[in-house]
Amino acid sequence: MTHRAGWTIAVLLVGPAFTGGAIAAAQDSQFGIRGLGTPGRWESVRSRSTGGAFGPFDPLSPLMEAPLADLGQLTATAAGYTSTRDVVVGGTTTPLRTTRFPLMSVAGPVAPRLAVAVGFTTYLDRSWDVILRDSFMLRGVLERYRDAIASDGSVADVRVAAASRLSRRIAIGAGLHLLAGSTRMTAERRFDDSTFSRVQQSAEVRYDGFGLSGSVLIGVAPGLSIAAWARSDNRLRAKVADTTSAVTDLPRMAGGGILFAPSPSARVAASVAWRAWSRAGAGAFDTWNWSAGMEFGPRRMPIRLGARGGQMPFGPGTTAPTEAAGSLGTGRAFAQGRALIDVGLERLERRGGGLTERVWTVLVGLTVRP
Questions:
Q1: In this predicted model, what pLDDT tens digit does every residue of 213-249 receive, in sequence order?
Q2: pTM (two decimals)
Q3: Integer angstrom CA distances of residue 211 from 230, 272, 307
Q4: What is the dihedral of CA 132, 135, 136, 137, to 10 degrees?
């Protein structure tokens, strides 16, 4: 069998994963198995602790470029997440666990009215492992077997961004996005009857794509700002052994937010985002997502609260799965503000097509200003 044939078989075997005969043993969300994967969150720990509401206004979140214009010095940031999830399918609950390091960037001013940033974040998570139990008649005997199908990898979004403050009230930005990554796909069939040989096939799938984004940040009045952003990605090309196995259109996206800061120790924000994932083909859905959050207390050690909700682009049913989450967090500055540690906790629930996920995620971020 060729590598391309092995990839095709793996994809076909995944189809029944939500029909009740599958036992999930994956790291990432089960809602990404029958689609391109699970979309990443383009937010720093600070923003995610507020439900994502501060994402359009946070220069360390790779969602918008315009806030970079207000960075006063060179800044580096990174984030790590650890999640424990319970997956409920057909009355059976399976516990899963994953650790990810989905964000890192370096940004700072390079001229009086110009700032740049370079970094990466997760575009799609594609790590999962499912086990299917079934049987068929072979020479008049019912033979039971187990299929194990696994994918290990992701698609990263490598971003180069620039922003400029045109005036006291207006800042603009733009970004170039290179999508790259790979997954290791394996498919194995093992019969209960040990006299049958085990059959296994594996292939490495590599991905590439390209995107452009732009954003604007406007100060409407003292303490009140609005933001808007848009992004267009072209396609995700999958290659196996230097042969293109699939080309999938990627979504166009747009969103915005509002931030109200009545005092230096109190800030509230809300945001909304639309993504046209239906361009990816049958079984994909356009999504709307919203978030609202607040940050209060001294900037040296603030308290953050937030909530978010909306839809996911892929799932086992005929309608878009839904998700809702609540989060909280704080941060602590050290070394005269040159180092900052952010921590957060998020509780997430996803539902759709008879599948439910309940997830606890611990968030840790480190920011350094040399």
A1: 999 999 999 999 999 999 999 999 999 988 999 999 9
A2: 0.86
A3: 11, 21, 29
A4: 160
